[in-house]
Amino acid sequence: MDQKFERPFMTVTAMLCLALLAGPLAIAQAPTLPEQLAAQYKLLKMGSDTSGYSVVEQGTVLEVKKGGILAVPYSDKTMLTTKYEGGTVHSPNALMVAGKKSLLGHFSTTSSQGQTTHLFAVGDKVYPSKVDVSLDKDTVSVAIVACDKCNNTDPPTANKAQVVFQFAKGTLAKASAGDVEDTIGQLLSIADDQSGQSPQGGRDQQEQNQQAQSHGQGQLQQQGQPQTIQMGMTTDQVQGALGSPDKMVNLGPKQIYVYKDLKVTFLNGKVADVQ
Fold first, then answer.
1. pTM
2. Residues 156 and 241 in one domain
3. Are residue 98 and residue 172 in the same domain, yes or no?
4. Is residue 8 part of a domain?
5. Cα distances (angstroms) measured from residue 273 to each of 33, 87, 185
6. Which of 7, 182, 205, 240 could form a disulfide with 250 if both were Cys (CB 3.0 to 4.6 A apart)?
7. Which domain holds residue 275?
């Protein structure tokens, strides 16, 4: 009788041990690079009606930092690709543009003056409409659409383009989200003025800033006692250790606390990256 009950008891015990071991590992699993980029860049949503294409939901406003990104109207059937590698912008060449034009017969169905391409200028504002990560090719592709509201463009153009960020072979799989975002930011940085966002988003961020400041007043870091920031810590825990940040960036599920010599990135309210 004893032997009959011993094996099931050992089996259940083993299962409990495995569950206890697997639980913390599952909880501690860090978000993937695509997930972190998706949290960093809110994507634009476009729609169409009888009047043409229009913005349905605004995305994160990005600022063009270098010239050379070649765009076409949103209604075009093709997308021109600009490559960014080693700090250099590689625009689509004239032969490529002419080849695509001959294959499709035309670029734009709405252009009345024959202008079918547009070079984004430094300082222009755009929205991201799609972000793709290819670890095999070591590339991150970002599709963008002009923020006509930000650029005071009238009538609206909704010019679109695609930028492929090329990383050194074998490095993207090992790169942190912060490193990738820094590279993207060399060409398409998150604008300080998110004026293309809805007013509600600005109020939410202002309220969070005020709450963070009031919460951190009595919890400033004590001098001489080093503080530790760990993955998974909440915003309250970080503020309790470091005090109120100098700057806060609210991007929906992703938040960034900027201190004098430290940048802490939160994903869904918990620390995902520290730089």
1. 0.60
2. no
3. yes
4. no
5. 11, 24, 17
6. 205
7. 228-275
